[in-house]
Specification:
The protein is 78% helix and 0% strand. By secondary structure, it is mainly α.
Length: 118
Amino acid sequence: MAEGEIWLDPERARRGGADLTAAGEAIGAARREAGGAIAAASAERPWGRDDIGAAFEKHYRGYEETLLRAWELLGRSVQGLGGEVVRSVVSTVETDGGASRRLGDILRGHRSPPRHWR
């Protein structure tokens, strides 16, 4: 990247965005599968229902809920990031193309660029 320039390979960036979306979907699927199994197993309270089991339950449940919620949010966030990358690439390419066309129109309208452009 030269100073003041941004180099963008639109196809590579789009593929990267699609890969992020797929990764987010995979994280979400793992959360549903493995996280669902964790939640189902803990609902059986394998640690018991005595005083020790109740104390464990009291502390464990909050951590489990936080972990499962964060895992789900991570999947959605990564998936959403992929979509944002793709939208950003499309917007950047459209903006660059529009600016290029406008500049071409300006230059074609004049035999030479204005003095301050030289």
